[in-house]
Amino acid sequence: MRYEELLLKSAPTWPYKVNYAKVTEVSCDVLVLGGGIAGGWAAIGAAREGAKIVLVDKGAVISSGAGGAGVDHWQNTPSNPACKFSPEEFTAILLDLNNGDRNALTTYIKSRESYEVLLEAEKLGMKVRDSEDVFKGAPFRDEATKLCFAYDYNAKYTIRVWGSRHKPLIYDECKRLGVTMFERTFVTSLLNERGKQGAAVVGATAFNTHTGEFYVFNAKATVLSMALCQRQHIFSTELSGMRINEGPANMTGDGHAMAFKAGALLVRTADLGFPGGGGLGYPMYGVGNSGNTWYAASVVDANGTEIPWKDINGNVLNNVEGRYLPALGQKLFLTGDQWMGGNRAYSPPRPDTNNPIYKKPFYTDLTSMPEHERRAIFGLMVGQEGRTLIPVYYNYTQAGFDPDKDMLQNYDGGASGPRVPTWLIPRGGGLYADWDLKTSLDRLFSCGWQLFKGGCHANAATTGRYAGRHAAQYALGATLPAIDAKQVELEKARVYAPLLQKNGMEWKELNAGVCHVMQSYCTPEKEPEVLKIGLRWLDELWKSEAATAMARNPRELMRVHEVFNIITNGQMIMESCLAPMKKNYWETIKLDGGDPQLGELSYDFAGDLVANYKSHNKKWLK
User: What letters, b where the CB count within 10 A reaches 16 and e where it falls short, cover 218-238?
Assistant: First the structure.
C-alpha cells in the first residue's frame, strides 16, 4: 500500500476535507514566502513591475506577520520635509550609535525610502496626517504638512501615524494587483536547482494546514520574508497569557531554518542580544514603558512623588516639553526601535528611576501631562499599534482605565516592562543580502526580519517593497527553472512522516525539551564546552524524540515542523556561538555538504552607500 493511502486511512476526525495525496503544482514569476508587512510590500513592489506574483503564508494574510496588524510610529524618515537630517547624515548617525555594528546597507535603504513608502501607504488609505487638526498647535505637529512626530521633536525622524489598518490595506492592494495568495499554507523547504544544496533557488514546497494538500511552487525568483524564532528558550502553552516580548508565538524561524538547509549564508546568528519573555510576561507595551510607545510619560513612586527626568548631562528637566528635545551639545537623541544600545551621545532623556530615594512600585501618570501628550500616547500610540490595540487600548478601556484620571502600575520604571525570568533570543541574526537584496543563493531575495540586523515596522515595509521590485526585475528577464523531482519526493516523505507515528511525542513536549536544552547550554556566556554539550543534546533529540514526533491532523503537522525548525535554528545558533569574535566583523555560517562552515563579514561590506544605491536603482530613481 502506498504511503499516501496509509495516511488517508489514518486521518482522524477533522472539520476539513483532508487529502494528503493531492499534489498541486504552481508556477509564477516571483514567489513571496511570508505574508507579513515585509512580504505584503514585497508582493506589491513586484506586482507593480508587471510580474506574476504568488504569496504564501501559514496564517491569514489580512492580519498575519510579526509586525502586528497596525503601526503607531514610522521610523527612519529623514527624507520627510520637516526632518533636520538627510538620509546620508541620519544613516551615519545610526552607524555611529552602534559603533558600526549595524547593517549599513538596509539602514541606508530604509533612511532613503521609508518616507516614500509611507506616502504610498497613505495613498492606500492609511491615515498619516492630522487632517482633522486634532493636535493643532501641539509641539510635535508640523503645521505645514500636518505630520505628527514622536520622540525627538527637534530632529523629527519618527512620524506618528494612525496605522491600525495598515495590514488590511496591504491585503486589499495585493488583491487589486492580482496577487495569488495561498493562505493557511505552511512552507516546508526551499528547492535548489538540481536538488543541490547551495545552488540557485527554484521554488519551494508547502502543505495546507486545513486539508494537508501538498504544494510545489516553481518560480523565476523567490522572496523570503519570514520572521525570527521566538520559542527557542521559553515556551509553554499552559501558562496563562503566553506571549513573547518581541512578537507572536507562531514566529518559529521557519525562513531561517529553510534558508540554512538550502545552503544560504547567514550573518550574526549568534547574536542573542534581546530579552524575550515567556508566559510570565505582560501585554506588550502594557506597563507604561517610558522608552518606546509610552515615551515620555511621567512616572511617580509609591508615595505619589513625581520622579524627575534628566538629560544625558544629568540636568533635571523642569517641564514635559524638555523630555522631547536633545540636550545642550547633542545632535539628536534616539529611542524607540532605533535605540539598540551603543553610543551614549545619542541617549534620550530618562526618568531617574534608579535613584534609591524613590519607593517602588512606580506608576505611569498620564493625568499630569499636557492633554495633547496624553491623547497622543494613549489614544494614538497605544491605540494604533497592532500589538497594543486590542490587548492594551481596548482591554484596558473596557476594564475602566481612564488616562485622564488613572495611573498605570509601571513595574520597573523603564523601557522594558516587568522584570520576569527571560532568556535571550537571536534578534540580530539573519540572511546576508547584496544591494538588490539578493541572498548568497541565486534567485533568492530577502527582506524584513529575515535579513540580519533588521527590525521595526518601517524597515519591513521598506525592504519588502525594495526586494519585491528587484526580484521582479530579475524574474522578468529570466526563464522558469527546472525543479528536481527527487528533491520534491524526499521532502514530501519527510513532511508527512509524523502522520504515520501513532504513539510518539507530541509537538508541545518536544518544544519544551528543546527549550530546556537551549536554557541549559546556550546561555549569554557562550562557553565553548557548554555549547558543544548542547549541540550533542540537539543531535540526540533529532535521532530519538524528534524521530518519533507525531501529528494527528494538518494543524498538528504544522506545529511539529515548526519545532523541527526550532531545533535547526538552535543548532545554527550554537554553532555560530563557537565562532571566534573579531573586531569590526560579524561571524557567518552556512551549510556546505551538510557541514556548517563558519566565516566572517566586515562591518563595511556595503561599500559606498550612495554610489551603490544609485547604481542598483537607476530604473526607480526620480
Answer: bbbbbbbbbbbbbbbbbbeee
